[in-house]
Amino acid sequence: GSLYKSTNAGNTRLDIDAPEGKSGNWVTPFEQDPTVVNTIYTFTQEFRAKPYDDATGKEIVFGQPIYGNPTIGWGHLILKNEKFTEITIDEAETLLRNDLRIAERTINRVFGNSLTQNQYDALVSFCFNVGGSQEFVQSHVVKYIKLKMYEQAIYYWKQWNKIMNKETKKLEPNLGLTNRRNAEIELFQGK
């Protein structure tokens, strides 16, 4: 795959050439450059300074039901021990970088140095979004990528586009997640 650099949330991108006289995969452990964080930004509508429901996109109002997960900034899942009423862009970037480090460690631990940069970036985005849980690590996506059976991995990757409807208790496809999965898969494939 090719490497690109974007400093404006993916609106434009520049090619990055391999260092002179070098070729092949990048060596892991990878660590995403701060400008690569913008790749993640493009999967959300906008920076959100106040807590919002990730299923509906609506700002959380005390006393109103929440259908997804309380989220803030650029997709930071608000943990039970965290209390946010409003954050700055700088605070959101710190949260994002910390969340990305967790995803990066998970991908490095699971895949070692077997990935191209595009594959790594796509999987960091995916892991960031779904969490570095055992469910992710033991998923069919991970299993088939490790076996280099990419068509099967992509089939299962696309299935991670659903959210739980808290009223009906059923998983339902979500357009935002569908678009994110498709973008991650395209990145993984180097498109």
- Mean pLDDT metric: 79
Helix % is 25-40%
Structural class: alpha+beta
Between the first and last Cα atoms, what is the distance in angstroms? 8 Å
> Going across the major beta sheet, what is the strand order?
3-4-5
Query: Any idea what the radius of gyration is?
Result: 17 Å
Judging from the principal axes of the Cα atoms, what is the shape? Answer: globular
Describe the structure.
It contains seven helices and seven strands. It has helices at residues 37-41, 89-111, 117-130, 134-137, 140-146, 150-158, 175-188; strands at 3-5, 14-16, 48-53, 70-73, 76-77, 162-165, 170-173. The N and C termini lie close together (8 Å). Strand 4 and strand 5 (76-77) form a beta hairpin. It is globular and about 45 Å long. The model is unreliable at 1-6, 16-35 and 38-42 (pLDDT under 50). Helix 2 (89-111) crosses helix 3 (117-130), helix 3 (117-130) packs antiparallel against helix 7 (175-188) and helix 5 (140-146) runs antiparallel to helix 6 (150-158). Helix content is 40%, strand content 14%. It is α+β, with helices and mostly antiparallel strands and 191 residues long. Strands 3-4-5 form a three-stranded antiparallel sheet. Strands 1-2 form a two-stranded antiparallel sheet. A two-stranded antiparallel sheet has the order 6-7.
